[in-house]
Amino acid sequence: MCLDVDDTLVDYTTSSRAALTDMVGHAGAWELWQRITDEHCARLLAGELDYASMRNIRTRAFFAELGEFLDQGEATKREVRRQAVLAEGWTLFADVLPCLDWLRATGLPIAAVSNASGHHQRVKIASLGLAEYFDHVLIAGEVGAAKPDPVIFHTACLGLGVAPTETVHVGDRLHADAIGARDAGMRGVWLNRHGPQDGSLPDGIKAISSLAELPELLICELSGVSV
Length: 227
Prior knowledge:
alpha/beta, Rossmann fold, 10 helices, 6 strands, 51% helix, globular, HAD family hydrolase
């Protein structure tokens, strides 16, 4: 069993939006922040930047887009503050611990598979009491590959000692998590917390709106019952 972390187990978006609002003073820059973060995380995974440098450079690039040009010291000060507010806001979704308790009771080996970039993700997992549930934790910045790259999925399976065809991966992003897992030979499950979407799901993909639905889905999958 493989599980994404941010916005699957941890309500990351809510805490990240709050931290950004604290740093900027308003809530209108989220899309810009996400775009610049994606660009700089790609550079991190490509080996062009280390994690500490990436955070500082990203923050300077973000404020430059807003017309404010920061020196390194000021960018570091603002980023440190943002990280502190972010960490204060980390919370688990209500359906997480009951699902993890059930999964652990089944005896299934469990891995966390995250596209995060740095050691902070392990700190987050530990501080929220999640570490005890996982037999293996994979962080994209450590592996050198990020979802939907099959490498990170196959590395997770290798760490758990199971074949991809025997493994289910659940995550909140349809392409990176569910389709990426399917294309890596696993069973992909999309956790769509926002509710039903128009149109049919891609072939081979299952969808749930809550982790409370995962046990029934897994039982049906194992028994061959269509859901």
